[in-house]
Structures are given as structure tokens and as C-alpha cells.
Design goal:
The chain is of the alpha/beta class and 190 residues long. It is built from 5 helices and 9 strands, in the order H-E-H-E-H-E-E-H-E-E-E-H-E-E. Bound molecules: S-adenosylmethionine. S-adenosylmethionine (SAM) binds next to strand 2.
């Protein structure tokens, strides 16, 4: 499989500063002032590094070995490892929050429930997921919409969901931004 960090495709989505929606989530208190966070599909680690500098203990995972190596070289305050979100190498309920800026929509539709299940497993009950799912992959409209997100995260609490145009270093992307929280197995969010 092509590594988009080896062939330069990552210029389409890479943002070398923290995203406005992450800054907003910290600024309005939806994300608390610290805790343990997982950045899923972390790429070059810009968001993970920012969250770490804001006081969080952050782990970034990505399938791309090139991305993980570059992220680790740039952000010493974050633990990076090559891992697949569909099979996370972490114990249950060990994270307070997770970020996904652009990974979810890459998964085949048949893997979405597994994604949601793995994240719910590693987040503590009430843990937060800031999801940014792009409406296009390689410029082509995909099937991501509010219904897909609602169905995938039916066992979660969707606190807010909206469409937005978000910046990268080279262009603007149309995405759905969702703030979710993990329910425990009994349905409680805290
Ligand atoms: C659109 S990029 C976004 C990268 C980064 N979050 C950013 O904002 O620049 C999606 C990332 O998800 C990673 N990815 C795709 N499938 C994955 C999987 N199953 N497990 C972990 N990472 C994955 C890709 O390697 C890529 O780095």
C-alpha cells in the first residue's frame, strides 16, 4: 500500500498548526485541561504536539511508518507508534479523549463498527472523541454523511455535529465535525 507521507500526497490535508476546532474544544472547555489522549491517524503530529503542550499526555498512532518517524522527530513531548485503529494496542479505558482528523473516512465501510468499538473500548466511559470526517477522499465524494456517523456511533452520545470548511496548509476541506462521548456498557456517559 502507498505511504502518503513517502510520496507527498499528505500535502493535501496536512495542517502545520493546530486546527481551529481543536483550539475551540479546549477553549470552550469541552476538552478539559489535561488527561490522557489518543490521536488516531496522527500524521505528522501537529495536533498531538499542540495538545501535549496544552498539558495532556498524548499518544499518536498511524499506519504510516514515515509519518510516525517524522512526528516523533518533531514532537518529543508525544509518544508515537505505528498501529492500526482497528486493533489498538492499549488496555481498556486508558484514555480520556481521542482526536481523529481525517482517519475515519479512509476506512472501508465494513470496518467502521470495529473502529467505533475499539475507540469505545480504550476510552473511559464519558471519554471524548473529536471527529473530523472528510466528505471527499482523493477529491471524490465519499458516502460520509450525518446518517453514517449517527449509525456508526449509535452506542455513543453525539453532543454536536456540524458541517464545516476546514483549512489545510494548501487548501480547504469540507468535513463533518462531531463531538462525541463514549457511553459505558450500561449506557452511562460518566
Ligand atoms: C487524512 S490523513 C490525516 C493525518 C493527520 N490527522 C492530519 O490531520 O494531518 C489520515 C491519516 O490516517 C492514517 N490511517 C489510515 N488508516 C489508518 C488505520 N487503519 N489506522 C491508523 N491510521 C490510519 C493515514 O496514514 C493518515 O496519516
Amino acid at each position: 500500500m502507498a505511504d502518503h507521507y513517502a510520496d507527498g500526497t499528505c500535502r493535501w490535508w496536512h495542517l502545520s498548526r493546530p486546527s481551529p476546532e481543536l483550539i475551540a474544544a479546549l477553549g470552550d472547555g469541552w476538552l478539559p485541561r489535561g488527561g490522557r489522549a489518543l490521536d488516531i491517524g496522527c500524521g505528522l503530529g501537529a495536533e498531538a504536539g499542540y495538545l501535549a503542550s496544552a498539558g495532556w499526555q498524548v499518544t499518536g498512532i498511524d499506519l504510516s511508518g514515515v509519518a510516525v518517524a517524522r512526528a516523533a522527530a518533531e514532537h518529543e513531548n508525544v509518544a508515537f507508534l505505528r498501529a492500526d485503529v482497528r486493533q489498538l494496542p492499549f488496555r481498556s479505558h486508558c484514555f480520556d479523549a481521542a482526536l481523529d482528523r481525517g482517519c475515519f473516512h479512509y476506512l472501508p465501510a465494513g470496518d467502521r463498527q470495529r473502529y467505533a468499538g475499539e475507540l469505545r473500548r480504550v476510552l473511559r466511559p464519558g471519554g471524548k472523541l473529536l471527529l473530523r470526517a472528510s466528505l471527499r477522499a482523493a477529491g471524490v465524494r465519499n458516502d460520509i454523511d450525518e446518517e453514517v456517523i449517527g449509525h456508526t456511533f449509535a452506542a455513543w452520545r453525539i453532543e454536536n455535529m456540524r458541517r464545516a470548511a476546514v483549512p489545510t496548509d494548501t487548501r480547504t476541506l469540507d468535513v463533518i465535525i462531531a463531538r462525541l462521548s463514549a457511553r459505558g456498557r450500561e449506557g452511562a456517559t460518566v
